[in-house]
Design a protein that fits this description.
With 473 residues, this protein is mainly beta. The chain has one domain: Neuraminidase. It has 1 helix and 30 strands. The strands form 6 sheets. Strands 8, 9, 10, 11, 12, 13, 14 and 15 form an 8-stranded antiparallel β-sheet that branches. The two termini are 18 Å apart.
């Protein structure tokens, strides 16, 4: 279920990266009615009538070949020639591979998150540059359901939001509400039903936090969810991770703050993995060492479904690095955990990608495996998600400079059995461009999967404008 430009990561060593199957059907319904408390946002600029080919979104540049405009957003009004525009296609109820399709183009969309429902449909959430937090519901075939809707007005974009699928196609969205200066933030949330209509008012999850850098959330078997975030909870203190549970009525339970007994140094980039027995594990990036010689490891604490710590905090073996790095973790259908992380300095000084299978408590069950890495190519933004008894999928981007102020990013996916055995070779999902000023650029992405073996990946891309693309396999 958690990512900012990695160049900024290394400069500040303050991660803000991102980030899921489950829930019920019924999400693929009519668009949010005008009477909904949600304010309808603008539809993706330049969306053509079906069959007319892509047009340039106003003020954002034209889409590249990596993402066609998402279907289903036509209004049925007459075209410029006077002929009626084609009616939107019927909503797809059974999952069909699609994409990439472009979900958002207007208002500088970035930092997307996605949740997938049991019906195969999904909802994509994103921030707009100095604009609102918005969402778009998508059916099981990649077609838009209605138009983008505004969730809340926020200040300058900060950390990647989170969206959690719940029962009956309902969902909850969580995000950081920052001051204009970005010095303090609160984690806010709002619940929605399957039609995209808000079912709760804005609710505050956390008190004010200085330098909130990341959040992640996941659904619990009892119908509730758990959210974790990282930030400076006390003035003058280090960044720490806090965890909050919510029940099926979206009411909060006790909050637990993870103050590491190993070190009082910063905790960053929390990730939540919910196990089949209802317990859950919270993993985070733990800072150690000294200012001159820093070190970072992935640490993990397991909790019961009611939030009681199970066993001691564990430092996950093999993850130590001298620089901050992104990682992701997921619970598998057999009760094990799969961990992926970016490793450095192995393949001629570039970033590689490692995989390890762990016990529910973080114990090592098998040696780590390098699954990606090549000379001159950096691996970024790794994600892992369970697809039920058929195993799990790992996605990542391989990036390289493609010229002045441009980075090419190729998205890869690979499927594995629950024991870590590859089920296929890595497959490319396409290449897109990222605009930059110096060095390699970095985008953000989010992975969601279901027990039916399918998954969705959403990512942002920048080139003469900002776009968000969604792909389903």
């Amino acid at each position: 279920m958690d990512r900012r430009p990695f160049a900024c990561l290394l400069a500040t060593i303050a991660l803000a990266l991102t980030g899921c199957g489950g829930g019920g059907g019924g999400d693929d319904v009519a668009a949010t009615p005008p009477s909904s408390p949600l304010a309808a946002g603008p539809s993706p600029g330049g969306t053509p009538a079906p069959g007319s080919g892509p047009t340039a979104p106003a003020g954002t540049g034209s889409p590249t070949s990596t993402g066609s405009p998402i279907a289903g957003t036509g209004t049925g009004s007459p075209s410029a020639s006077g002929a009626p525009a084609a009616a939107p296609p019927a909503i797809v109820s059974g999952f069909a591979p699609f994409g990439p399709v472009t979900v958002a183009t207007s208002n500088g969309p970035q930092a997307p998150a996605v949740a997938r429902f049991a019906s195969g449909g999904s909802v994509v959430v994103w921030q707009s540059f100095n604009g609102p937090l918005q969402m778009q519901r998508v059916d099981a075939g990649g077609q838009a359901v209605g138009t983008p809707a505004t969730i809340a007005a926020i200040g300058a974009p900060s950390v990647q939001p989170a969206v959690v699928p719940l029962a009956g196609g309902s969902f909850v969205v969580l995000w950081a509400d920052a001051t204009s200066a970005g010095a303090t933030s609160r984690v806010l949330m709002r619940g929605f039903d399957a039609s995209g209509t808000a079912t709760t008012p804005l609710a505050q999850v956390s008190t004010a936090v200085t330098s909130l850098t990341a959040l992640d959330a996941a659904a619990l078997p009892d119908g509730g969810f758990v959210v974790a975030w990282a930030g400076t909870q006390l003035v003058g203190g280090p960044s720490t991770v806090a965890v909050q549970r919510f029940d099926a009525a979206l009411a909060p339970a006790a909050q637990a703050q993870l103050n590491s007994p190993v070190t009082a140094q910063a905790q960053r980039l929390p990730r939540v993995a919910v196990l089949p027995d209802g317990s859950y594990a919270v993993a985070w990036l733990q800072e150690g060492g000294t200012t001159a010689l820093p070190s970072f490891t992935v640490n993990l604490q397991r909790f019961t479904g009611t939030g009681t710590a199970l066993g001691a905090e564990r430092v996950l073996a093999g993850t130590s690095s001298g620089v901050a790095f992104p990682f992701d973790i997921t619970a598998l259908s057999d009760g094990r955990l799969a961990l992926v992380w970016q490793s450095f300095g192995v393949t001629q000084g570039v970033a590689d990608l490692d995989l390890q299978i762990l016990g529910a408590d973080g114990s090592v069950l098998a040696p780590s495996t390098r699954i990606a890495g090549a000379s001159g190519v950096d691996v970024f933004d790794p994600h892992v998600a369970s697809v039920g008894t058929s195993g799990f999928v790992v996605t990542w981007e391989q990036r390289s400079l493609a010229g002045i102020r441009q980075t090419d990013a190729t998205v890869f996916v690979q499927r594995f059995a629950n024991d870590g055995t590859p089920l296929e070779a890595a497959q490319s999902l396409g290449t897109h461009s990222l605009q930059t000023t110096t060095g390699e650029a970095s985008g953000q992405s989010s992975l969601a999967a279901g027990t039916d073996g399918h998954f969705l990946l959403v990512y942002d891309r920048w080139l003469a404008g900002s776009f968000i693309d969604l792909v389903g396999r």
